[in-house]
Write a structure and sequence with these properties.
176 residues, mainly alpha, 3 helices, 0% strand, rod-shaped
Amino acid sequence: MLLGANPLIQVKPGLMIWTIVCFLIALFVLRRYAFGPIQKLIDERRERIRRALDEADEARVEARKLLEEHRKLIGEARGEAEDIRTVARHEAEAQLRRVKDEAEADRQRRLEETKRQIEAETQRALQQIRAEVAELTLVATAKVTGKVLDESDHRRLIEDAIKDLDFTVLEQETVR
């Protein structure tokens, strides 16, 4: 096949002019009605993307600020918690000392009360022993002498008998 034989490859000036004119008209129409709106859509999309990037940058900056504030608040909370623990520890120690002091005071009070009771019981027992010794002395004297003594003789004999007895040993034992 020859090159000149194909009708699409043959040079025809009239057809070329009309092809160029149709191309220019199509270009004008596309430029006026298609490229403008397409370019406008592209520009709008570009603007939306730019705004989204700006908003993302602002959000990132805000997130960093919030993160720093959060870290600061956590640090303050930890400090406050440590202060609270310290105060609670001091209060617990003070309360423990108070309880110990109160228990020791109560123990001392009970010990003193017990000593007073023992001393009172000892004195009462000594009085009772003295009375019984005096009574036994009177009975023994009446049996030995065979006579009944009057009040003054009773007193004199009781005092003599009690003087002879050594109650200091019993009194010293109660003091211990």
